[in-house]
Amino acid sequence: MNPVLLGGENRSGTTLLSLVLNSHPDLCVGPELDFVEPPNLGTHVLEAIELVRSRDPRAVGPGTSSGDPYWYDSAHFVKQCERFGIGYGELADTIRERLGHGGGNLVTLPQRCELIRALCEARARAQGATMWGIKLQRKIKDVDEFARIWPRARFIHIVRDGRDVITSHLNTVPDWGHKNIEIAARDWVEIITFARHRAPDDRYLEVRYEDLVGSPETATRRMCDFLGIAWSANMIRHHELEHPLHRNPWSHPASEQTKARLTQGSVGRFRHELGHARTTQYESIAGDLLTDCGYERSAVAPPR
């Protein structure tokens, strides 16, 4: 099976995009799987599975937090797999199967990717899909590494107006989101620029969040053409369908929002919530790329 890998800055609509794609009968697309962060995807995750299963406070706390930071990354990965519909037993069995191949403790990136492939192909078969996908999230800027490991993968990068992105960070996820305008602007520029420069031209597609929610049929047809599959009307009624994320959200910040139909309600929220000074500061750093992506500047500020 050929994967479709999604990416974008946090709070850009990546979860919404994954559910829209997962609504297509030929696609099995899940939320993010942070599979690079745990010390290994072998014994460490096997231990974390048992801790999460038993609700051990070392691995389970409010939301996706863990009482012991040592277990956070592996326990978080287990919870993310559950969001995708991958149960504890299935995850443990697949890890043991990969360990049985003698490839070490699943530490290297190729070993980690092989486990992800095995897990996602099993999910796709169970769902009756012919393609699988997950979110790489901000790792889309390292698209060249994943393109080498998965030479037939296709990458969809969702881009959202960076001013709305930082507004969402500040007002929706203040606990873990960006708090510094300059850092947020530079990160937004870096992710888009790196992805564009590193991606294989024929396997990379950018989709604007504003187009997805404003002209959903046009945007989803464009993605289907890119993936080489027929368009399905299910994609514009994702909110009417069941998704594993909504059964096991583990406090995912976009879980409730993605149960609703596609709307433009969050487009341009920065105009009312970010303020003139912070908007001007953001545009002084990211203004050129905002213009290149089709976003109109609201403040006159010299590029930095």
UniProtKB/TrEMBL annotation:
Gene Ontology molecular function: transferase activity
One Pfam family this sequence matches: Sulfotransfer_3
Enzyme Commission numbers on file: 2.8.2.-
Stretch forming the signal peptide: none
Domain of life assignment: Bacteria
InterPro entries given in the database record: P-loop_NTPase (IPR027417), TPST-like (IPR026634)
Kinase as UniProt keyword: no
Alphabetical keyword list: Transferase
Record PANTHER family: PROTEIN-TYROSINE SULFOTRANSFERASE, PROTEIN-TYROSINE SULFOTRANSFERASE 2
Protein name per its UniProtKB record: Sulfotransferase
